DNA sequence: ATGGTGGGTCACCCA
């Protein structure tokens, strides 16, 4: 079995002890992190290796963004895409020695205003998703898993109130349209929705700004793990560890995972 | 309609 997780850690240095606990508690083979917020020269590579995860690919920068793939299974190749040619660190990918390729994305949040003319961050977000679509059309993925903080909650029950979030960046029709186009372009399998019907709520993120996130439960499903169809038969489970949102000094994102029968 | 909190860095950026 291969267990792959994704977590927007919001500073890998601040939450290194939590990372160690999560790797152990959920017996993860691979974890993909977003928002590591750490330049490569300060990345805690040796600490993570000492946890038993000796194979690590990372790309970071000061203050913002940053992605890594941490594995106890050998990585035979790693590479990255310079999305939107901005030089920011929002993508990294690895090929494991079992033949699986994993892409880790941190899609731009997109700012507050859902208008590409008024808000360059929103335009960047839409362009980023379009570029994901075109890049996977150029080199058709096989035995591939794409994960990350997509910053888009595509379905009605991926947010606490579909009506109230229709104009809120993360759930606007144009974003959902772009993500749907990406999804359909390679018939990507939405792992978590394979096990939870579309009429049931599913969240992976709760704002820091709520005094009691569990009580108000105004969540959104921003984090995703998708598979190429050739892996669908191997998908055995998909989980959202909402309890990771309750740890001391939590990220605003929960850790999510899948298990593949490999 | 508004502001609420948190991380990184050092007066604000970003989420």
Summed up, what is this model?
This protein has six helices and 14 strands.
Superfamily (CATH H level) name: Endonuclease/exonuclease/phosphatase
User: What is the domain tally?
Assistant: 1
Strand content: 25-35%
- Compute the average pLDDT: 98
Tally the beta strands. 14
* Poorly predicted runs of 5 or more residues: none
Span between N and C termini?
A: 5 Å
Taking the sheet with the most strands, its summary is: 6 strands, mixed
Q: How would you describe the shape?
A: globular
DSSP helix count? Answer: 6
Please tell me how large the radius of gyration is.
17 Å
Main structural class: alpha+beta
Indicate the CATH topology. Answer: Deoxyribonuclease I, Chain A
Q: Residue share in helices? A: 10-25%
Spatial sequence of strands, sheet with the most strands: 3-4-2-1-14-13
CATH architecture: 4-Layer Sandwich
Please identify the top-level CATH class: Alpha Beta
Order of helices and strands: EHEHEEEEEHEHHEEHEEEE
């Amino acid at each position: 079995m291969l267990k792959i997780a994704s977590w927007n850690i919001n500073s890998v240095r601040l939450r290194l002890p939590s990372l160690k606990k999560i790797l152990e508690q959920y017996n993860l083979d691979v974890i993909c992190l977003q928002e590591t917020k750490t330049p490569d020269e300060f990345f805690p590579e040796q600490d993570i290796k000492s946890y038993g995860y000796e194979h690590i690919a990372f790309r970071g920068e000061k203050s913002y963004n940053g992605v890594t793939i941490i594995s106890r299974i050998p990585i035979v190749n790693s590479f990255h895409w310079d999305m939107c040619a901005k030089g920011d660190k929002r993508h990294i990918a690895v090929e494991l020695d079992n033949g699986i390729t994993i892409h880790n994305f941190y899609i731009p949040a997109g700012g507050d205003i859902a208008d590409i003319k008024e808000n360059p961050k929103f335009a960047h977000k839409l362009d980023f998703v379009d570029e994901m679509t075109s890049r996977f059309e150029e080199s058709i993925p096989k035995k591939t898993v794409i994960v990350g903080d997509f910053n888009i909650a595509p379905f009605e029950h991926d947010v606490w109130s579909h009506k109230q979030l229709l104009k809120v960046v993360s759930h606007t029709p144009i974003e959902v349209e772009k993500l749907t186009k990406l999804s359909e372009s390679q018939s990507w399998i939405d792992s978590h929705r394979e096990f939870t019907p579309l009429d049931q709520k599913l969240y992976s993120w709760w704002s820091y700004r709520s005094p009691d996130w569990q009580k108000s439960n105004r969540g959104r499903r921003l984090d995703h793990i998708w598979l190429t169809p050739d892996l669908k038969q191997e998908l055995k489970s998909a989980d959202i560890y909402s309890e990771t949102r309750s740890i001391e000094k939590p990220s605003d994102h929960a850790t999510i995972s899948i298990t593949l029968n490999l």
